Amino acid sequence: MPRLPLVDPDDPDADPHARALLGRVQELRGRTLNVYRAVGNHPEVLEGLLQFGAAAYFRNSLTPAQSELAYLGASVANDCHY
Amino acid sequence: MVAGRATGLTEQKLALIGVDPLPDGVYAPDEAAIVRYARASSRLDPITDELYASLLEHFTEKQIIEICFTVGMSNMINRFHATFHTDVDEDTEEMLGAVCPVRLPPPPGGSVADNP
């Protein structure tokens, strides 16, 4: 059972900052994964995470496969369920 | 895993990423250096001179920073999911298909049978 609600970018009652950030994710990545919608409960943290992720993972000088081996190698070592 | 497939990683490389020690002959030397580093860093093992040298053999210092922080971001997000028990996206599960190359741990509060 998840402990956080997922922010719905289409919900007019959702935080406008979070909605704007999730809209940008949708535009850039084509979909809004639950991880972003969950972190969207703290829009300032989500904004920082997106900037950091862009620099470290999405726009680095490694090949996509090398980046993914770094990310996935850590996730598997941590036994992450997600 | 979906992202891994999208980058062109083979099913074999995905399936063996958790096997310790890493099998010989499956990963290219640069890939093996990344995976060994990612594991050691995540487990808070010492980053030995040998391990660091294996990264330097294939990557610039700037790239090693990128690898270090990609591993760090994964650790941060992994702890987020462990704390908040985030559900895996339905469309991600659909894209993954019936067979996941890596044996997943049970979801929080679930059992191993939930992720055969």
From TrEMBL, chain A:
All copies of domain Carboxymuconolactone decarboxylase-like, residue ranges: 43-82
Gene3D superfamilies for the chain: AhpD-like
GO terms, molecular function: peroxiredoxin activity
InterPro entries tied to this protein: AhpD-like, CMD-like
Pfam families per UniProt: CMD
Domain of life: Bacteria
Protein name: Carboxymuconolactone decarboxylase family protein
Organism: Pseudonocardia petroleophila
From TrEMBL, chain B:
InterPro entries hit by this protein: AhpD-like
Superkingdom classification of source: Bacteria
SUPFAM superfamilies: AhpD-like (SSF69118)
PANTHER family: 4-CARBOXYMUCONOLACTONE DECARBOXYLASE FAMILY PROTEIN (AFU_ORTHOLOGUE AFUA_6G11590) (PTHR34846)
Protein name: Carboxymuconolactone decarboxylase family protein
